[in-house]
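Q: Convert this sequence to structure tokens.
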Amino acid sequence: MTEAKWYILHTYSGYENKVMNNINTLVENRKLNHLIEEVMVPTEVVTEVHDGKTKQVEVKLFPSYVYVKMVMTDESWYICRNTRGVTGFVGPGSKPIPLTDEEVRNLGMTRQKSEATFKVGEVILINSGPLEGSEGVIKEIDEPNSKVAIGVIMFGRETPVTLDISGIDKIN
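A:
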């Protein structure tokens, strides 16, 4: 069995989540987890301020693209290519080209386990993004997705922020 690699699907604008959900449903129904391992739409949670109110908004990092980690076979190609909303694979002509290991690392699609273990209620330091250097309190930990919900004091009140575990450090 060959190793699964990351491929990129181009979709109609606004169809990214529908494509991801449809592929995941087909994989589950046809029991093809051995061919299509993961489907994702890379997103980032950003804090927006409008009229003095802050709110968390999830934005797509690459609109109109869906990332699929799969073993390329006729069956896996057919499922992805013929999903409603997909215009094709990224690559020359009809030949999909997998991402290189370096591209996967640069896109941050490999999840690295955090060395530090965190606890709810612990005070941490944010080490990346627009809130870099801010302190916050861990409210919730989502280990399977490597995410943490943090309360950060902004404008005199606590604001919820969701970050990758890799985006925070323990305060010594």
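The domain at 123-170 is CATH 2.30.30.30 (SH3 type barrels.).
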